[in-house]
Records
---
Amino acid sequence: MFFRKLPGVSASGMGLRLSQKFIFLLFLSGLVTLCFGALFFLPDSARIKRFFLPRAESQTPAVEPDTTAKQDSKKSDKSHDHFKEIIPAKAVTSAKIKAISQKSSPTSEKKDAEKVTVKKQDNQNESKRPTPVKPRFAVNKPVEQEMERRTVSSKKGKHGSPFDYEKFRQCLQKPILGVENGQPSDPQTRERREKVKEMMKFSWDNYKTYAWGKNELQPLTRNGHVGNMFGGLRGASIVDSLDTLYIMGMLEEFEEAKSWVEKELDMNSNGEASLFEVNIRYVGGLLSAYYLTGEEVFKKKAIELGEKLLPVFNTPTGIPRGVINLGSGTSWSWGWASAGSSILAEFGTLHLEFVHLTEVTGNPTYSEKVMNIRNVLNKIEKPHGLYPNFLSPVTGNWVQHHVSIGGLGDSFYEYLIKSYLMSDKRDEQAKKMYYDALEAIETNLVQKSPGGLTYIAEWRGGVLDHKMGHLACFSGGMIGIGADDGEPEQRKHHMDLAAEITHTCHESYARTATKLGPEAFRFDSGVEATATRMSDRYYILRPEVVESYMYMWRLTHDPKYREWGWEAIQALEKYCRVDKGFTGIRDVYTTSPSPDNMQQSFFLAETLKYLYLLFSDDDLLPLDDWVFNTEAHPLPVIRTECMQWGEAGKIQQQQ
Ligand code: DMJ
């Protein structure tokens, strides 16, 4: 039919001239090529496609066990600089990135959005994506199967998000929950672990009954507490508990928590929040729940909150102030902080979460903000190599010379070494700053008491204050996890220091009547590891001491750390457990302490999680894959081959 329409050409083609035959053949071959090409645009499910084409390579490979994964990954090429490497960006329109940034903050954020260098969406990007990495583990136990089922069913982005959760999971070296959910084979350890789980259930059930949706449970008055730390955000205990419930296999409770986050966690609050607390508990808690489960709702909420926090960086130096109004984005310094200064442990404890916000959004702004903080701190002159606790966000100068590895300083140091570990050991700037700081701390602050206890004193303009806070007791674990990557000849020394500090912190517990440690203990006036002031004698369910036990157990497998953890559990049961939950106590030096009526959310997020991990096998949340934020929320190591965006890698470090 078609041929008849061509003038001078018969239907059979028998009477065609040579040139006409050539044109005809050319046309025919063009048509065949077109038809074949069209096959590629058919969906994968189309039968005709499967008939003509082999299976697509991007399909998920079968799950298979690989016990050599750890060694293999260690051999991977680390010679290239993480921070200069360019990873192909996943397809996204720059307009979308702009929209995210513009919505989140005033003028300067718009400028940031314009700086975004994410490549335009095109087919080339597809072909440049790194080849999918095979999953390196098998999942074969009932609880894990159930968790895995939930995870897999929700891992495709429901909100059109570009983050490839499946790819992320395939890049983990080990199963998240171990082969048997970290269940120890030794009956006594298993029993102790069960005890911790029971404590979690008890805390959770009472929170649910008496304080659901509030921030904390007040177990004596049997009601909830909201307070003003989170700027009107609610449910701090719920968000802080998500990952603990998940790793303990408390799936029903986890579902309740998830459904509350989905339906009730309202980010449209207009109150004044602590940037630090909102970041470590809410952003950290939500991100961690997302990475563990793949449930999109957690990522969505984390991003929503992350956007609300962005205006806080609009200061002359980019160093944020401590308080932010979550509605207006206005921020200011704490009234008690000298001369409008910002606090080292607050602005220095954003890095892990903000790098992950970039990872899940593809928006480099988050990483840029925290890299800027890092660069400011790297450049500034430091007295004796030490970092004072107060810095002006306007001038970028130190405001006074108080140095502490406890409150006001603590998690800044923690985030340096953890940034290095979370970057798959590529963040050289963080590494250098951490080991330099540790050296300065050792030279200027580390002391040995007459009784042989090692402690880290505080420093006030060159004068030592022989006091160590409970908060500073996290440093045993921190120095322990950093020991492997310092100078090889320092390794043993760092492990010894970590063990000595953990021992001192244990002594601060052992020397009390309750066997729980005080808020601060001193090494003067004839005492050692003991509180001398009434105002330092309280214990508010803090985690730092058991946190160090957990790390030191994983690093050494010395049974004393489990014994010390068990002592703490017994003391918690005896002095902090009341009818309707757990409470802090006002004086650890008396056997009849009065309760403070507060079940802190970090008790569920940290204290109970670290204790549970202490009595679990090391393969539950393996440290090769996970780094805990300062609220004990696990965030994954970002491996170059698995980076979704590589945006963090494009940010220049100023040495
Ligand atoms: C937690 O919120 C975090 O561990 C933070 O780093 C310090 N304070 C509490 C627990 O003591």
Note: The pocket of 1-deoxymannojirimycin is lined by residues 280, 411, 471, 542-543, 602, 606, 630-631 (CB under 6 Å).
---
Amino acid sequence: MANVSAYAAPAAKAPLELTTVPLRETGHHDVLIDVHYCGICHSDIHQVNEDWGPAIFPMVPGHEIAGVVSAVGAGVTKYQVGDRVGVGCFVDTCRKCANCLAGDEQYCTGGMIGTYNSRDKQGEPTYGGYGKQIVVDENYAVRIPDSLSLDVAAPLLCAGITLYSPLRHWKAGPGQKVAIVGLGGLGHMGVKIAHALGAEVTVLSQSLRKKDDGLRLGASDFRATSDPATFSELAGTFDLIINTVSANIPLDSYLGLLRTGGTLVNVGAPENPSPVSMFALIGGRKSLAGSMIGGIRETQEMLDFCAEHGIGSEIEVIGGEQINEAYERILASDVRYRFVIAL
Ligand code: NAP
Ligand code: ZN
């Protein structure tokens, strides 16, 4: 087996360092991808820190991968050498369960294989996009439209699809009021996509520090959640609220912002449970929901939608040696709005 140069955390909570990890052979249905850019998702930090439970080390994080196909297996039909492709949060699934067959592979009941911090069907650890190359089955790669440059496209593979999927599922569009909680990597994609879908968008951020950006990205209102007046003035306003915050927030207060019948969708994944009062739901027939990334077909649809609407991520490109510093800045909400590693 070959090796590939990559940035890895050798142990839980340890700084990432340049090393080499195994690169699996390019099999019959596989494509070998030269990684050009990889976004840094807050989930990378959660997993390096074992916020979500025991993890596999050394860990090469990265599931916002944009690159170019440099070799294909003999049975590959979808891609050719030179094609621009992306890889998101998973690299294989059971392919047989009802969810896989419906194109909702992210909810595979047979066991989704994560792009990193996971084990493939042979039991070998998977390594993510903070490295020079990755091998994936052609069915788990998506095509990056020519009009999107690879750097701004990379974050669409997780942040983009994680917001696109619930916005479509809950039918965000003209006449709907949508609030996005947290203007970080996920949140800023939510503002752009919800606006492009025709919804009226409000950003609920901790402070008004990012207000100019929020309005520029497509929001028509921007409120600080540190100001109690936000919760009284906007009570009963929104059809849909998408919470992207990586920490626990007082959900009852946010449920109060929904109109009757509205839905609060959580995509943020804090390590601890969040208490909810049933009275915050039953008084207005409200729903509290969750959503995780999106399927392969929907990810391709999202990329095509973004290309059509000229939507990329707002990025700060860094070198691999700056990853640890970027992690600190993400934890301090100091990112506008996605770090992307040039590899
Ligand atoms: P991020 O770039 O760090 O953005 C999170 C934003 O939340 C921050 O920019 C900040 O926005 C706000 N925030 C942070 N701490 C807060 C606090 N204590 N109280 C209130 N607001 C706070 O992170 P991300 O990459 O967008 O990821 C966000 C979360 O989604 C993470 O938990 C990640 O693991 C999860 N995630 C889930 C999925 C999924 O499929 N469901 C996919 C990817 C990521 P303001 O400065 O505007 O307040
Ligand atoms: Zn992610």
Note: The chain has a mean pLDDT of 97.
